[in-house]
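Researcher: Next sequence.
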Amino acid sequence: EAVLSLTDDFMDGGRSESSRPSRGITPSLEGRGRATPGAVAETAAEGLPPARDFVADGAGRAPILVFFTNASCPYCREVENLYLRPMHVRGDYRGRLLIRVVEVGGGAPLTDFTGQRTSHGEFARRERVAFTPVIRLYDATGRELAPQLFGYGTPDFYLGYLEQAIEQATATAHRQRTLSCAQVNAAGGCAPSAVPWRRAGG
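Model: Next structure:
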């Protein structure tokens, strides 16, 4: 039985009111399992970069995969070690996808998608992330590009859901760039990617 919930109701900011705790998720309530800036730095040293400035990240117009995690979440470590860290180290999505870590409840500084200074914990609270692990894929404006991945299932299911979400996000981002170029093409200088990204060998 898969315990990962891939929600389809991701419009209007991508918040899924119907998602409910189940096996494979860890509550990340404020004040419980609180992460420190040092814990975020440790995560970066291990291979996954912490979120610091989403405005700067969005300058390249690549989708941004945000991994909401928590220091006390064992399922988060599995998602990180089995999927996200190898993906990041191998460079499977280099130039096409950014991976950033947000520690739910953490106090590390962060510039959000609007350019306002906040913290990891406050950003997660505003995004209504109360359980971990959660993966969301955003564009440069903070709009979600694909259904979120909520919780953690067995390896047989999780990788497929993750790759499906990434492919949907990159395809949606490509359509957005193409539409934007069509709107300003008369002024010239707009050159979107020729085709949406697909995983090597896929």
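Model: The chain has a mean pLDDT of 76. Residues 155-184 form the longest helix (30 residues).
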